[in-house]
Amino acid sequence: MRKPLGKTGSFISSKIGKAIKDYRLIEDGDRILVGVSGGKDSITLLRLLKERQHWSPAKYDLIAAHVETDFKCGHCVHRRYLTALFKDTGLPYVFKKIKVKGISKKTVNCFWCSWNRRKELFKTAQAKGCNKVALGHHKDDICETILLNLFFQGEISTMNPRQPLFRGVITVIRPLCYVEERTIRRFVRESGLDKLTEKKMQSRDSNRKYLKRFIQDIEKRCPSVKTNIFRSIGRVKSEYIDLKTG
Predict the structure, then answer these.
(1) How many whole angstroms separate alpha carbon 74 and alpha carbon 236?
(2) Which end of the chain has fewer CB atoms at under 10 Å, N or C?
(3) Is 229's pLDDT higher than 60?
(4) To which H or E segment does residue 95 belong?
(5) Which is nearest to 49 in space by CA: 37, 35, 67, 39?
(6) pLDDT tens per residue, range 55-105
(7) Dmax of the chain from CA atoms?
(8) Tens of pLDDT along 137-172?
């Protein structure tokens, strides 16, 4: 039985629809692997992409995927919970378990764990015949990433809504790119999912947390700051930029 989305869910779905149209995120015949961590963002994405299957003009298939590692933290989600969640959607699903400890000299942390989980998602997508991988990054994530790369890496880059990889064999899509985190939080509360996702609510990246607060402070003076940051990457005035490096 289809569950009603409610006002907030319908709003998010409309934003997803706009992103799909603007960036050609989903096309007829796509087979999409949805990376599901168990947090609010990926669960929201999975549910709304599933709902859109009923009436979307583009016909596409979905597979839910969760990658577990041997690096445990407060963000880890029990497989039993995710199994019940996947079965409730009626979608095919797959679990993968990988090692991230001792496979290199790199320090095992959230970034290293995340990088390896992403790599496994791409391998799983290819094995399942998927041409796209959908990730739950939202507008706040993208804005924070722009500032993180600018401030801490000295470069201008971000997470694209649509990113072809491996010469186009796999394309990463981010259908929540127009949706703010606060809206997703409201949706999971209204849907009764907040208790299930609360462990995934907080980022452990101290720099990202700092920039999240930084943007929130600026938002008090400039309510459109997130939209401005988001749009800036596509509105570069090259005539005012000296590309010589220092």
Answers:
(1) 39
(2) N
(3) yes
(4) strand 93-98
(5) 35
(6) 999 999 999 999 988 776 655 667 888 888 899 889 999 999 888 776 666
(7) 60
(8) 999 999 999 999 999 999 999 999 999 998 889 999
Residues 6+ apart with CB under 8 A from 209: 203
Separation of CA 169 from chain center: 20
Both tokens assigned to 190: 């209204």
In the 3-class helix/strand/coil scheme, how is 121-152 assigned residue by residue? HHHHHHHCCCCEEECCCCHHHHHHHHHHHHHH
d(CA 63, CA 80): 18
Closest CA to 177 of 144, 153, 142, 204: 142
Q: Among candidates 86, 50, 229, which has minimal Cα distance to 156? A: 229
Read off φ and ψ for residue 72, nearest 5 degrees: -100, 140
Q: Yes or no: say if 162 and 25 are a contact pair by the CB < 8 Å rule.
A: yes
Q: Are strands 61-69 and 31-35 parallel, antiparallel or unpaired?
A: parallel
Say if residue 86 is exposed, middle or buried (CB neighbours under 10 Å; 0-12, 13-18, 19+). Answer: buried
Over 80: is that where the pLDDT of 130 sits?
yes
Name the helix (H) or strand (E) containing 66.
strand 61-69
Which of 75, 12, 56, 63 is closest to 35 using CA atoms?
Answer: 63
Quote the pTM value: 0.90
Strand partners for 164: 171
Q: Is 137 exposed, middle or buried (0-12, 13-18, 19+ CB in 10 A)?
A: buried
Domains and CATH numbers, the chain: 6-139+156-202 (3.40.50.620)
